[in-house]
TrEMBL record:
Residues 278-775 form the Glycosyl hydrolase family domain. It holds the Pfam family Glyco_hydro_92N. SUPFAM superfamilies: Six-hairpin glycosidases. Residues 29-272 form the Glycosyl hydrolase family 92 N-terminal domain. Monomer. This is GH92 family glycosyl hydrolase.
Length: 791
């Protein structure tokens, strides 16, 4: 029996109706292989659509998992064998691997250093094609060409076999994949001759730590274009003979075939986080009559449309590659968790229905790593041209608040997977409100934002901010030296203080400011007064002697043996040199406290020194390579610092250093991608490049009651931006080049622009923003009126 994969009627015209601004083929500038030497689990998933649930990708080492639950795993450019093609790739979520083979049957993937020890296959990257929405590779050990693509919730496979009487497709379901952690249960069965269904339940490391009653379930329902000659089952114990089903850890099936030369076998696999029935419904809704080629065409048309919303022009092809690859990762990093019928996975394996307000675009429930640092990249990009995803983020968190009473610092299928324990969700939602993204219950949103900043009673560990009581009591978080490791828990935080006390103080001060501005906008005066006072917590830990943020004890004294470059002691994933500039809510206050000249000299010298090590990453391939550096662009706490010169009267230094970071830190090779020591959390570093290359940024993350946009040094001679409000913004940079990085003058819609900033609502009216660039600083432009600081 052979199934008919008929063409059907596909609304490709809609997908292919590319705007005038995106008429150029932008897909050719996306190189998914950039930065794959040290990349997180989501990072290399080319066979996906923007924010899709189905993220198909080859895996070189995914079954190894990772000890700490976050390290780079999945696909590494330094490894030369593939063990399978995996469907699910999210923060703490991974599973369902398929692999075509020939010859003697093996049901274990085998070792990286001994490919022949299992079913993995060697491959040559010259025979690999990776594009947005599509992946293709020749598996050398089997002479099989494997191709994968996807719709939102359906994965497509096409395997071209040689002539062989022992051809197989291995459906490896019950094993660890990436960040998924331990598999606790799995099941797979043939429904009939050409349909397969199953599920896998996992217990990821971060769920175990932060939400121990939680679990992550993944479901699938697949359709096969050719009936197998026979089916065999296997489990962790090995092969189980000719059976049509398998259950438990290590469960899987083998589809056996006799294939002719160049014979193609296709599969399409509906996915869901809620049920097999919904996985089947997702398949029927999105791909019932879709062929592989149609799915690929539709996926790539979607990428063309979404990437093309930001159309850049200029002679430097390498910069375009950096730009569109960064944007690709920004639009790939998170993934929907809701089904076509609106079902989403609730805590503990339950199913819910997403509540919507009815205003604006219908939101999706999405999985997400922590938003730590996201206000300096991804949320600004969302607010510019992709507000529907900002709205989905807000609606997801509000649904979680309804269900569980608290926001999630990080989220995996409604389970708390706290990335850093500080929870900036309230700040991100307050900024969404200030930028006009309001397709949700605003009163409920404010209630939740306020609770995130001030409430501590019965707060679950996984929601983060376990030291809110201490912060509200002292105005800062007291340092607890003994909490470095306390009763087996590293870097403990509780209601009395924290080991990461200083970074928490700075972060809570910033998020309190955001909540205060939202309170002010909603007329809640008492809340505003309380929150704005807390936003000055940074002053409590700034040592007036050394002008550095120094950990402080509960008795009000600064700690002894203080070393400004020492990472972790008082500072999460950083040190005092990096975090001293972490006052985004009030740069003018920090500048005054430090002294303008000292501020500028110190900051400029920091970049002069860090330029010698490519701004923190150096040549070490490690996420924390720059954690003890003077500046670390490879991680979140530093990402706003280069823009602070706009506030200190020297905007030309912001122009200089942001340009150089874009030039040196970001690369176009598999090894040097986002630095060498990068931690690309779901598209954040890519987003930073995109908005910085446009010359638009806000240190305050749009948290002001009337947000602003600071101006930098646009890289491209012209950028045409489809704004989220359907208007168009054109940014021209006359004479821009690698040497001409300095703004000489600027106009907005023909009127001289004398400030190095403007209000965001003015920018969002669209029109034309024109910069004239030169090779030497214009030290008078943009210096008269600095951006507003404390509002």
């Amino acid at each position: 029996m052979k199934l008919s994969f008929s063409a059907g009627v596909l609304p490709l015209a809609l997908l292919l109706s590319i705007s005038e601004a995106s008429a150029q083929n932008v897909l050719k500038y996306v190189n998914p292989n950039i930065g794959t030497a040290h990349s997180r689990w989501f990072f290399y998933t080319p066979a996906a659509v923007p924010y899709g649930m189905a993220k198909l990708a080859p895996s070189t080492n995914g079954h190894y998992g990772n000890k700490s639950g976050w390290e780079a795993v999945g696909y590494d450019t330094r490894q030369n064998s593939i063990e399978g093609f995996v469907h699910f790739h999210e923060w703490q979520v991974g599973g369902v691997s398929f692999m075509p083979t020939t010859g003697e049957l093996r049901v274990k993937p085998g070792d990286l250093d001994k490919p022949a020890s299992g079913y993995r296959s060697r491959f040559d990257r010259k025979n690999q094609v990776a594009e947005p929405g599509y992946y293709k590779v020749l598996l050398d050990d089997y002479n099989i060409t494997a191709e994968v693509t996807a719709t939102k919730r359906v994965g497509f496979h096409r395997y071209t076999f040689p002539k062989n009487d022992q051809a197989h497709i291995i459906l490896d379901i019950g094993n660890t994949q990436g960040e998924s952690g331990e598999v606790t249960d799995a099941s797979i069965r043939m429904v009939d001759a050409t349909h397969v269904e199953g599920f896998v339940s996992t217990y990821p490391k971060y769920v175990k730590t932060y939400d121990p009653e939680g679990k992550v379930n993944m479901y699938f329902y697949g359709e096969i274009s050719k009936q197998p000659a026979s089916v065999e089952a296997f489990t962790a114990a090995g092969t189980q003979g000719k059976k049509n089903e398998a259950t438990g850890k290590g469960a899987g099936l083998v589809l056996n075939y006799q294939t002719a030369a160049q014979e193609k076998i296709e599969m399409k696999v509906g996915l869901s986080y809620t049920s097999i029935a919904n996985a089947k419904a997702n398949l029927q809704a999105e791909a019932r009559t879709l062929t592989f080629d149609q799915a690929r065409t539709a996926a790539q048309a979607t990428w063309q449309r979404e990437l093309g919303k930001l159309a850049v022009e200029g002679p430097n092809e390498q910069d375009k590659t950096k730009f569109y690859t960064g944007l690709f990762h920004a639009l790939l990093g998170r993934g929907i968790a809701s089904d076509v019928n609106g079902d989403y996975p609730r805590h503990g394996g339950k199913t819910g229905k997403l509540v919507t307000s009815g205003r604006g675009p219908k939101p999706e429930y999405i999985n997400t790593d922590a938003i730590w640092g996201g206000y300096w990249n991804i949320t600004q990009l969302w607010a510019l041209s992709y507000p529907e995803w900002y709205g989905s983020f807000v609606n997801t968190q509000l649904q979680l608040y309804r269900d569980r009473g608290w926001f999630a610092d990080g989220l995996a299928n409604s389970q708390y997977v706290s990335g850093v324990g500080t929870n900036f969700v309230g700040l991100a939602i307050a900024a969404a409100y200030q930028t006009g993204i309001r397709n949700y219950d605003v009163n409920l949103a404010y209630q939740a934002v306020r609770a995130n900043e001030l409430n501590w009673r019965n707060r679950p560990f996984g929601s983060g901010k376990m030291d809110v009581k201490a912060f509200t009591q002292y105005g800062y978080v007291p340092f607890k030296e003994e909490y470095k490791e306390y009763k087996g828990e590293w870097y403990k935080t509780d209601s009395t203080g924290a080991y990461f006390s200083n970074s928490h103080t700075l972060e809570y001060s910033y998020s309190a400011f955001a909540a205060a501005q939202m309170a002010k906008s909603l007329g809640k005066k008492a809340d505003y007064e309380r929150l704005i006072k807390l936003s000055n917590g940074w002053k409590e830990i700034l040592n007036p002697q050394n002008k550095l943020m120094q950990p402080k004890l509960a008795n009000g004294t600064f700690v002894n043996n203080f070393k400004p470059y020492e990472p972790w002691r008082g500072f999460q994933e950083g040190n005092a040199m990096q975090y001293t500039f972490y006052v985004p809510q009030n740069p003018a206050g920090l500048i005054d406290a430090m002294g303008r000249e000292k501020f500028n000299n110190r900051l400029d010298s920091i970049f002069t020194a860090s330029a010698k090590t490519d701004f923190g990453g150096g040549k070490e391939i490690d996420a924390f390579a720059g954690v003890n550096a003077i500046y670390n662009h490879g991680n979140q706490p530093c990402l706003h610092i280069s823009w602070l010169f706009n506030f200190s009267g020297k905007p030309w230094l912001t122009q200089k250093w942001t340009r150089q970071i874009c030039e040196d830190f970001y690369g176009t090779e598999p090894i040097h991608g986002y630095g060498y020591g990068q931690d690309e959390d779901q598209g954040q570093l890519g987003s930073w490049y995109v908005i910085t290359a446009l010359g638009l940024f806000d240190v305050k993350g749009f948290t002001d009651a009337r947000p602003i946009v600071e101006l930098g040094s646009p890289i491209f001679s012209k950028a045409t931006i489809e704004l989220g409000n359907q208007k168009k913004l054109i940014i021209e940079a006359k004479n821009t080049s690698k040497e001409n990085v300095y703004v000489q003058s600027a106009t907005m819609n023909g009127k001289p622009l004398n400030n190095c900033w403007l209000y965001r609502d003015e920018l969002m009216q669209g029109g034309k923003l024109v910069f004239t660039m030169g090779s030497k600083p214009n030290t008078t432009w943009g210096t008269k009126t600095p951006p507003p600081s404390a509002q």
